[in-house]
């Protein structure tokens, strides 16, 4: 008797460090997981960058492995990855250059000339909802290729962001998607809802692939393959999808990690210069609607300052992991003003604190103060948010969550946990094309924090 095979979707979740493949069943449970890390290579200037060939081979090796397994019936494949770098393809679909690193220094001359041509940095950044971030504005990477390597640029048939390149490897079809175009690329005019005029003026539009929404699917490139292939998604936008599909009342998601990003999908009010200067921008949902987002480097700051505290008091960072909130300490520390400046705590002499517990409470109070200011930037004047969800590392921090709930006393604050939110988002967005069941309502586990 033949064994019943489990219907699954394969999701490639490609981070800068870890490259993962997940198989999810129809209940969105992980039934298979594979992780890989590659050695970086270098570009022609010796700057470290992603090894595209290793990545390409890994996609096919991983797929061959899961296709050989009898217990799984792969119905669909999708991709999510960091999106701030372009892959430049020739007419045969082969990469012409390395995948340039978005941390690479950007030539000021090219950047300044572009801003000058477009009415100045502020005007340009406001229209494209992209703070001036050098190579992190991927559209500027494309301009750099045209200026510095015109011979290579003339051979480019298509420039696609990394998630769409991964999709192309399996589908053979080349498209751009809204989530990748909308993440600080400096390509999109958010007011006019089209590519910014500079893209056409510089002749870049002819190498940009046709745009599709993030819930599109294609047939696989291999004849007779029964599975569908998604267009790929930018990772931050993918992590928002489970919340968009589960909650319809206005909410803000604070996605915490090295960066803490506050995302409000219910706020499309135009950016102000003040917001832009405070690292506020727009992302885009898979359907192309703007998501106002503010960024705070709080996870990194937490890491640096916990090391400083641990060294000072002769303990280890593990000491802070399960520390519970002590309201007496909080009330004592509140007697002095707490700065909303993220680096405020780093200037404080630790001698002023009696012990490690007091010092750590003071650190988290500073971080929460800075987070409240950052999140306030994306709260809408017209649409009242009723809930704030916090996912990622800080959602497990008892002191942080209690202080945040106290600071946002007019809304419900929840710690949200979900295994692999980014990958699940990429699976959910094409749910109807592979899954015969309805979307389960228990994918996100919530813990309410009273204030």
From TrEMBL:
Keywords: Kinase, Transferase. One of its GO terms (biological process) is xylulose metabolic process. One of its GO terms (molecular function) is D-xylulokinase activity. Residues 249-432 form the Carbohydrate kinase FGGY C-terminal domain. One of its GO terms (cellular component) is cytosol. Pfam families: FGGY_C_2, FGGY_N. Residues 9-219 form the Carbohydrate kinase FGGY N-terminal domain. Belongs to the FGGY kinase family. PANTHER family: SUGAR KINASE, XYLULOSE KINASE. This is Sugar (Pentulose or hexulose) kinase. It comes from Sphingobacterium psychroaquaticum.
């Amino acid at each position: 008797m033949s064994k019943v095979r489990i219907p699954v979707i394969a999701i490639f979740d490609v981070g800068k460090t870890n490259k993962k493949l997940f198989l999810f069943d129809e209940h969105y449970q992980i039934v298979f997981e594979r992780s890989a890390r590659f050695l970086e290579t270098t570009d022609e200037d010796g700057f470290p960058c992603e090894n595209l060939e290793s990545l390409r081979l890994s996609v096919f090796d991983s797929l061959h492995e899961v296709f050989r397994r009898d217990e799984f019936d792969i119905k669909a494949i999708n991709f999510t990855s960091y999106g701030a770098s372009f892959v430049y393809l020739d007419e045969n679909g082969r990469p012409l250059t390395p995948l340039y690193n978005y941390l690479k220094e950007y030539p000021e001359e090219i950047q300044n000339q572009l801003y000058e041509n477009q009415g100045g940095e502020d005007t340009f950044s406001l229209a494209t909802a992209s703070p001036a971030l050098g190579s992190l504005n991927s559209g500027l990477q494309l301009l750099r290729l045209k200026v510095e390597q015109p011979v290579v640029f003339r051979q480019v048939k298509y420039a696609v962001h990394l998630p769409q390149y991964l999709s192309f490897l399996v589908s053979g079809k080349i498209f751009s998607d809204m989530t990748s175009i909308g993440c600080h690329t400096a390509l999109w005019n958010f007011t006019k809802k089209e590519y910014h005029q500079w893209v056409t003026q510089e002749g870049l539009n002819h190498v940009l692939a046709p745009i599709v929404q993030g819930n599109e699917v294609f047939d696989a490139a291999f004849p007779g393959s029964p599975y569908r292939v998604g267009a790929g998604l930018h990772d931050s936008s993918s992590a928002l999808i489970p919340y968009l599909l589960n909650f319809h009342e206005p909410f803000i998601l604070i996605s915490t990690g090295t960066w803490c990003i506050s995302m409000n999908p219910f706020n499309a009010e135009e950016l102000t210069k003040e917001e832009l200067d405070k690292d506020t921008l727009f992302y885009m949902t898979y359907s192309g609607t703007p998501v106002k987002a503010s960024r705070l480097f709080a996870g990194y700051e937490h890491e640096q300052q916990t090391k400083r505290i641990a060294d000072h008091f002769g303990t280890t960072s593990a000491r802070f992991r399960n520390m519970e909130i002590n309201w007496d300490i909080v009330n004592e520390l509140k007697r002095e003003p707490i700065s909303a400046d993220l680096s405020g705590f780093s200037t404080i002499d630790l001698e002023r604190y009696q012990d490690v517990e007091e010092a750590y409470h003071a650190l988290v109070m500073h971080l929460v103060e800075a987070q409240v200011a950052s999140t306030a930037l994306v709260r809408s004047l017209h649409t009242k948010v009723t809930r704030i969800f916090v996912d990622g590392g800080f959602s497990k921090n008892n002191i942080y969550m209690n202080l945040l709930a106290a600071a946002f006393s007019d809304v419900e604050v929840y710690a949200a946990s979900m295994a692999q939110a980014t990958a699940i988002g990429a699976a959910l967005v094409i749910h109807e094309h592979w899954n015969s069941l309805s979307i389960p309502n228990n994918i996100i586990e919530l813990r309410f924090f009273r204030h």
